[in-house]
Design a protein that fits this description.
Mean pLDDT: 97
Shape: globular
Helix content: 25-40%
Number of strands: 29
Bound molecules: ligand MTE, hypoxanthine, dioxothiomolybdenum(VI) ion
Structural class: alpha+beta
Number of helices: 19
Strand order of the largest sheet: 3-5-1-12-9-10-11-20
Low-confidence stretches: 1-11
Largest sheet: 8 strands, mixed
Radius of gyration: 27 Å
Length: about 775
Amino acid sequence: MRKLPDVPAQRAFAIAGGAGQDVKHESAHKHVSGEAIYTDDQAAPADTLHAYVGLSSIAHGKLRKLDLDPVRSAPGVIDVLTLDDVPGHTDIGPVFPGDPILVDEEVEFWGQVLFAVAATSYDAARKAAQLAVVEYAPLPADLTIEQGLANKSFVRPSHVQQRGDAAAAINSAPMQLQGEFRSGGQEHMYLEGQASLCIPQEDSGMLVYTSSQHPSEGQKLVAEVLGIPMNLVTVDVRRMGGAFGGKETHANQWACLAALLARKTGRAVKLRLARADDFSATGKRHPFLSRYKVGFDADGQILGLKLELSAGCGMSPDLSDAIVDRAMFHADNAYFLPAAHIEGHRVKTHTVSNTAFRGFGGPQGMLAIENIVEQIATATGLDALAVRKRNFYSATDGRDITHYGQQIEQHIIAPLVERLEASSGYHDRRLEIREFNRSSPVLKRGIALTPVKFGISFTVRHLNQAGALIHIYTDGSIQLNHGGTEMGQGLYTKVAQIVAQEFQVDLDRISCTSTRTDKVPNTSPTAASAGSDLNGMAAKDAAGKIKSRLTGFAAEHFAVPAESVVFKDSCVCAGEHTFTFTEFIQLAYMQRISLSATGYYRTPKIHYDRDKARGRPFFYYAYGAAVSELLIDTLTGEYKVLRTDICHDAGQSLNPAIDIGQIEGGFIQGMGWLTTEELVWGEDGRLQTANPASYKIPAIGDTPPQFNIELLPDSPNVEATIFHSKAIGEPPLMLAISVWCALRDAIASVADYRLSPVLDAPATPERVLMACNELRERSVQ
Ligand code: MTE
Ligand code: HPA
Ligand code: MOS
C-alpha cells in the first residue's frame, strides 16, 4: 500500500537503529499492550484526592451568586477552591493576560471554570461539582466572527503584511473576482484527555505530572499561581496520548488547579477532565472568515490580491497573535503574489479561547488562497492544476520572494508536483472522470492536485532553542533526555536514533527518560513541527561533547593522534587498540573522565521585523503535494474518497516509517477538518457537539482504499538541519486540501464545470448537497 524509499547505497547500516533507519516507535509495543504510562496511570500516593471543576452555563454575563455550600457538604468532599484561595497570580494567560484561572466577576464563555473541588473519589468530585448554586446577570454575547467584527471586538490589534499596490494591481488586471469564504474550527480529540497529578513536596515545592506539550510553561504558571519560585516546581511529562496543539497552552489550567488544591489540602491531587467538559472548556482550531479581491489574467496568473483574514479567537488572546500571523504567512501557499495586501484580525467572541492546532493558522491561510485559485480556474476555464503551476514561485524571473520578504531558496514544488502528476496519472484520470460524469447523472467523481509549502520555525524567534542532557553509565548504557515532549509523533525515537548514530552504537543501548524541567530547563513547547530539528540538534551537541572528551582522553592515554580514535560498530578504536563501547566507557570512567554532558541548539539565520512585516521568519520550507479522487452522490451529498497519492518532502528522512505515519495521520486529520468535523454552538453559547456521537472525526473506513505515499527521494535539506532532514509533524495536514478541492470538482460537474460552487469548510454531506442544489439552480437561470 505504501512505498518506502530505497535506502541510499552509502547508508549501509553498521548499527541497528541509527539515523535514517525505519525504526518502530520507541513505545509502540507499550501503546498496544497497555503498558505505556500516561498521566492518569502514574503511581499516586494512597491518599491522593480527585479534583473536578464547576463550569459556567452562560456565554457572557456577571456572576451574581456562587453558593458553594452544597458542594462543600457533598459526600466525599475534602475541600473547595475559589479565586480567593489563590495565593499568587490569578491570570494564567501564556503570552498576554486574559485567562483567569477561575472566573472572578465576569463569565466570558459557556464552560468557563468557576471553582474546583477535591474529593476522595473521581465520581464524588464530579457529582459535587454539579451542586453549586449559581446566578448570573446575562450580558449580550458575540458568538460568531461576524458579530465580533460588527462590534469591533478584538483580542489583539490587527496586523498587515503587504507588497506593492494591491488595489492598483487588481484594478488594472484583465479579470477580477471577489468573495467571502469560511472555514470552521476543529476539536483536537486527543485520545487521552487533559490530565494532571500534583504531589506536594518539602519546602512548599510541587511535583507535577501533566499531559502537556509545554512543561516549562506549566512549571512557570504553577509557580506563579502558588506564589513560589520556579526552582521549587518540577514538571514531568513522559508522554501524551495525542496533543495536536491542544496541550501547548491549554494543559496549564488543569495543572495549576490541581497544584492549588494540593497546596491547600496538603495531599496529592489529580484532575482529569471528562470528555464532554474537555470539549467545552478547552480551545480548538480557530474558525476563519476571509474576504478577498483578486486580479488575474486569462492565463490564470495572479496579479494582485487583497485578503482580509478574520479569526474567531474566543475570549482571550492565548496564542492568537502568532496563529493569525502564521495564517498570513501562508496566504501565498506556494504561489508568488506580485502585489498583495494581507490583513489579519483577531476577533473576540464569547466562546472558549481558541488555540494551537496542527498547522497553527497555516491551514486556514492556505485554504483561503486555494479557494481563490479554484475560483480563478473556473473563471478562466483552465484546469486548476494549470493555474497552480502558473503561479508557483520560481527561480527564473524574480518570482522567488514572499510577500513578507523571505527568499525561496529551494525550488522543490514544481518538480515535486510534476513527479506526482506522472506517478498518479493525474491527466488521464481527470479526462476519464469527466467522461464518467457525462454518463452518470447522480454519482459524480472529482479529482484535484494541491501543493503545500509550510514554513518551519517558531515565528516567535526566542522559542527556536533547545537543550539536551546525556549520561553514559559504567555499563555502557546511555540515558537521553531533552526538552521535547512525546505525543505519539515519534520524537523520542528520532532523537535516540541521532544519539545512536553519533556514538555508533545500537539504538537499544539508549533509554529515553521523561521530559522534566529539572533535567533540561527553560524549554520551548514541542510545537511548530520543530521538535526533532531543535532537540535532535541539542542531543547531537551533547553527544559531540562527550565524544570529543572521550577522543581526547583516548588520544592521550594511548599516545595516538586524535584522528585515529574512531567510534564504529559499537566499538571504539584508538590506533591499534580496539574496545567494545562498554569496555571503553569503563576505562574512561576509571581514568576519571566525565561521562555526562548537556547540549544546546539555536536555529540560525532567522529574523523577522514584525513592525515592517519583513524578514526571514522560517529557516526553511517543507513541501508536499497530494492528488485525491472521490465520488459524491449529488442527491444526498454523501461522498467517499477513493484514492489519494502523496509525494512529500521530508528532506533526508530521520525515520521514513515514522514520517510516513505522520503523513498518513496528518492527511486524515486534515480531511476530518475539511469534511465531517463540524462544531455547532447553540444560541446560548453552549457547544452542542461535545462528544464523538455528534462530532464526527474520520474513522478507519474513511481512509482512502488506495493510499499511495512516497517520500520525495534524493532531497536532503540544503540547510544544515539535523542530518539534513525536514520537519514532518504539521505540513501533511494541509495535503487534505486536495480532498476539499476534489469535492468542489465533483460538485462543479453538476453545471458542466461552468460555475464555481460555494463550499465553505467543513464540506459536510449537507453542504455538498446544498452546493449541488445551488449549482443546479444557477445553471438553469
Ligand atoms: N502526531 C501524533 N501522533 N500526535 C500528536 O499529538 N501533534 C502534531 C504533530 N504530529 C501530534 C503528531 C503537532 S501539532 C506538532 S506541532 C508536531 O507533531 C509536534 O512534534 P514534532 O515537532 O516533534 O514533530
Ligand atoms: N507554532 C506553534 N506554536 C507556536 C508558534 C508556532 O509558530 N509560535 C508560538 N507557539
Ligand atoms: Mo503543533 S499546532 O505546533 O502543537
